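Hi C.,

You asked whether I'd gotten around to modeling the 372-residue construct. I have! Everything is below, sequence then structure, no commentary in between.
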Amino acid sequence: MPNLTSHDLDVSRLLFDLKRCGELVSRFTGWLEPDAIATCVTNGLIEQFGCAFTRIWLVEPDRRTLRLLASAGLYTRLDGDFARVPMGAFKVGKIAQHCIPFLSNCLPDEDWVKDREWAIAKEIQGFAGLPLMTDGQAIGVLALFSHRPMAPEFLEVLQILSLSVAGALASAVNHQALLQTPDTAHLSEQMAAFLGGHKLSLLGTEQPLALPVTQLLLQMAHHLAKLSCQYCRLVYDTDTVVLEAMLATDPTQPLQADTLTEIFQDVLVPGQALGGELHIQTWVDVAQVRLQLPQQVDQPSSRSSKIASPLSEREQEVMQLLAQGHRDRDIAEQLYISERTVKFHAKNMLDKLGVRTRIQAVFEATKQGWLN
């Protein structure tokens, strides 16, 4: 943790901390699950900077409360006193309401601290709170508590990190919302919401697609938006659907095919499993990406032809609800279990299937015919 020894800017420390933040951001780039992103960030801050504990709250859709999304370090439970914070209440609610970053190295002496004795007993000195901003308003709050003082420039580092975290969370929240309303919006409309502006053209009549195909195309649109896609088109053919995109690149630092392949790895692998193809071609100042997928996914003709699922009965139930676009909270309510238990089963599923994200797990389960 950076130490407050003087008011002089420690440039070397600033650059080092920025590098560590960049490494942390690379871990969750492209993820589309808010809980997973928030957990990655809070755990990463503990590992990289030695904080006492870190937390992320997300503003609820009604903008009246904030919900604790992730907590790491001294406290990992999500159901304590600050599981839900009213907008404008306590320091977290005020940061969300007024969008002012805050750093203090005398936490026990702050008049807003709810439990001063707790701060003294746990030897908590430093606190930093930052609004996670998109479109001019806070969608959440990132908070860090430390045993040692934090240098002023560390707040600048955290502000830069918070921009990436806010962007990733906003995209993930939008993605989850779109997946939960597949009947009210065409795929092209959902993709246009990611890409923005008038960057998408539609050729042909939109057809109902298999759920894994829809999810894969939405994930591709998410990547293209981050790459500042200039133009793309969605083409419906007889049995296939094709997404073609053109990316403008800096001639002094052109995008390489290998770099793009790495970026689209979480699309390439499950796409090939579904019988699709991903083609990438690069020039000095432009790159072309073409993803072709079957509109429907072949299912095994009988149960005897299926590979036995390694998932337990409960894990299979969780997988089924994930494939339908439900959030952890919804799954917990339907199965009468806690959100923590849902996360436990989801992690076991990823380990058993040898995949990195829940979307990849859904692809694998669909390919093997384990979903009803």
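If it helps when you're writing up: Confidence is low (pLDDT under 50) at residues 2-7, 300-305.

Thanks,
B.
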